[in-house]
Amino acid sequence: MASELSGLLRTVRLNAGCSQLELALRLDVSQRHVNFIERDRARPSRALLLAWLREMGGGTSLANAALLNAGYAPLRPSPRLPASPTRCDEVALRTIALHYPNPGHVFNADWHIVQANPAGRWLCDVVMPGVWAGERLDMLAALADPRGWLSCARSPKRIAAALLGQLRAEQWVRPGLRPRVDALEAVLVARYGCLVPPAQRDAMATSFDVTLDTRLGALSFCAVQTVCGLPHDASGARLRAELWYPTDMRTASLMRQQAERADQTA
Question: The domain that contains 36 carries what CATH number?
């Protein structure tokens, strides 16, 4: 089985539509050396790693993932998840409050929801009643659960493939995710068959469109994940806000009505 490093480098090359020969010419190395690196038979130097990712359009996060997996120092510090929220994490928490009456939640690098605004919790209860029972929600478990939100999503196979592609990209930076992602993939493949991310979707994309068929009718959203902070400071250890934006008037109106009812009964 390929290592995280060889898998990352091969995936980045394939996503760029570049052959081994073309990459070898651009890096001024032999195609045999490129092939050996992708097959875990050779270890690239730090300079070659950075050149590889630069030629293939990889950003800082991918560069650091590759460097750490190869045993090299990252381009910038890679802090661990802090015990208490940083100022940027506090901004993420405040963002979902300001996003109300639309759904929003905050999750950590291990894909556990740590906080949701009232609309986010209400939507979860509508689309997957009984799944979120405690203070936190394991998002990967919710994807795998047959009662989870994929059960009422239109085109669930497309969404599952897109999210799985993102999770595979994230595990390069956070290898501890891999066993959980492997387990999730096994469940989703058993349910939907072979999952191939849409050709036009970037594995680094952090937004998706979804329509949910619920007891209240169809609800349509665009879900966008955001990390607060300057781009070069963004860390995979930070909390992320996922904001759900209604994409039709009916969904927007229903969210406003739900918020008004909640305010009246509060």
Answer: 1.10.260.40
